[in-house]
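Form 7-S
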Amino acid sequence: MKKILLWVGLGFLMFILLVGITFAVLMALNPIDDNIKMDTISGDQRLAKEILAQKQSEINQMKSEMDSLHIYIGEICFARDSIAEENDFNASLIREYRKTIEMLNTELSTETKKNLTIKELAKTYESMKIAEMQPIIEKLDDHTVLDLYTNISSRNRKNLLMALPAKRAAVITQKIAVSNIE
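Output:
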């Protein structure tokens, strides 16, 4: 085993010696010129500067695009906020309109009931004689008398006016005439 190690060691030394000799011969045949070294270094620096300038240009372009995107995002946010404010305003209008509709529906329901009641009363007064309705009509306010007058059939309206004292019948007639003009 010692012999083998000795031969391996000798072989290794021979290999290193041959590599050294080959390197020396190559150097003698093709010496490295300092000018070539400088040209290579100078070329590498120039290439590095070009690459650096190109990358800097790309960075500047990206910054410009980012600035444009920031402005665009700002405009979108402003538009979104404006739309949100308009939606809030419209929602409040809708709530107000719903309240108004509810109120008007309530008033309409009340007026409808009132008109039905007045129509029923008008039918009752149509069936009464002047003497029967006179004590009742005298105690009613002018507005109620006017409502009854408009709901009684046209041939029985005279009876309603005849049941009133002459002065009050004249006032009611005047109110009827004025309401027809307007």
